[in-house]
Specification:
single chain; 176 residues; mainly alpha; two-stranded antiparallel ribbon; 7 helices; 70% helix; flat
Length: 176
């Protein structure tokens, strides 16, 4: 009988940890690792692009940029994860379940294994997407600040308009 290689030892240890974590539930840990790998690779690619272009991260982010990125992140994440118009992006990974709020859809993850499940969770969860969107907008401030500020301003305005629509509907109901 041969001794397992160090890689086989690590794989065995990882399987045991995953089994203990899952505790009988179906959790696609490998899919989550793949999605985290894509995120990490994206950050690496942006870092390399910044260096090749001679761009440096700002010493600090202005309060205005932070406020705009915060609101734009919220709006973009909700647009991607809940908007009916973006449902074709989510369709390979989710299943339509109905309407969850005004102009928003409720969708469930279609597959319960692997990468498809992990992507489905990511694309249907605005809080999960927010990390990705904020990272992209922040990277944009380094690589192309003018365009990024314009995009952030656009989605900040959309978020403001959404708020005003809800306020208008609320006030209209209150006066009836």
């Amino acid at each position: 009988m041969t001794n397992p290689s160090p890689i086989e030892d690590v794989r065995g240890w990882a399987r045991r940890q995953a089994d203990q974590y899952r505790d009988g539930e179906d959790r696609p840990l490998g899919g989550y690792l793949a999605v985290m790998g894509v995120y990490t690779a994206g950050i690496g690619a942006v870092t390399v692009a910044g260096r090749l272009l001679g761009r440096k991260a700002p010493v600090q982010v202005s309060p205005w940029d932070l406020a705009q990125i915060t609101v734009a992140t919220h709006r973009i994440a909700r647009t991607i994860s809940k908007d009916p118009v973006t449902s074709p992006i989510r369709a390979p990974f989710t299943r339509y379940q109905g309407v969850s709020a005004a102009a928003e859809l409720k969708e469930d993850v279609r597959s319960h294994n692997g990468v498809q499940h992990s992507i489905g969770e990511l694309l249907s969860c605005p809080m999960c997407l927010a990390q990705w969107v904020a990272t992209a907008l922040t990277a944009g401030l380094v690589l192309s600040p003018r365009v990024t500020r314009l995009v952030a301003a656009t989605f900040t305005a959309v978020a403001g308009a959404d708020f005003l629509q809800y306020l208008y509907a609320y006030l209209q109901k209150a006066t009836e």
